[in-house]
Amino acid sequence: xxxxGGPLAPGGAMRAVTAAAWRPRSGWLGATWLNVIGSxxxxxxxxxxxxxxxxxxxxxxxxxxxxxxxxxxxxxLVVEELDSVxxxxxxxxxxxxDLDLEQELGGGREIGAGYFMEQRRFDQHPDYDLxxxxxxxxxxxxxxxxxxxxxxxxxxxxxxGVRLLENRQIALEASRLFNRVWYLRxxxxxxxxxxxxxxxxxNDDTRAQFAGYYFLDGTAHxxxxxxxxxxxxxxxxxxxYDGHRFGVLYNRRLSDWATLKLDWRYEERQYLSGxxxxxxxxxxxxxxxxRARLEIPMxxxxxxxxRYEHRDYGSNLESVDYTDNRLEARFTFELL
Length: 336
Description:
Blueprint: H1 19-22, H2 27-47, H3 55-62, E1 63-74, E2 78-79, E3 84-85, E4 90-106, E5 109-122, E6 130-143, E7 146-159, E8 162-178, E9 182-195, E10 203-215, E11 221-234, E12 241-255, E13 258-271, E14 284-297, E15 302-315, E16 322-334
Antiparallel strand pairs: 1-4, 1-16, 2-3, 4-5, 5-6, 6-7, 7-8, 8-9, 9-10, 10-11, 11-12, 12-13, 13-14, 14-15, 15-16
């Protein structure tokens, strides 16, 4: 995450007031309400020409706030952090709040912060109910043609009402746009994760990742590819591994009515301990994911996203060798 500005960004009802609540009663009170409303409208019209200088307009330009709600289905309920694979299907209601703030400070500097919250509620499997809270802050500085960004972030997750994990991360990123056609980004990060239900899996994770974007028609039509290396070191040696991940993404705005996103990801995890599997020697995971997303605007502020995901996770540890599918439909409403 880091804003909703696409690849270049630095990993009604809530506002409605019923007519009955504001309906003038009668007599002088009704006339007073009409005068107040009329005065507010005239004041708003008079201040429209000063909108660029108003604090509210500046705040609105600096803040992105959205809420979403929908449903999802998984044919295999999994908790990856615990290597828990149920092989049972489940459907859930999902909802989220997404807040991003970004402000230019002058001199090529920008500051940003954000908060994201998501909930999932399963009808038949409450033990898999998820509550996720994520926050970040970043500061960036342009030096010549390169923008350098320092980011701090962290998250807390609850599973079935019990705290599952908490993590924190610090990252340094460098990015550059070439001729408005190529955009390259590299990042070094250090992450710490505590798993409260399995402290033997507490780990430090050192990461290096690179991404490149080729713009065929700005952000409306582009291709991207990325690579990530991470070295995870846990409290118990049998959970240590080195991972390599590759991914590609194709983004195309089909017209004013929809945007299509197709991506593929492959990851290989090489565990370092010979005791990582019961009988097969060192554990080796090969994980592949295919995903398709269709974003359909349904007004100026409302959007419907349809998502399908297929995962083929192979491993010589039989309990985590599986394939599954996920479907999701979600409405997102932009408040700011």
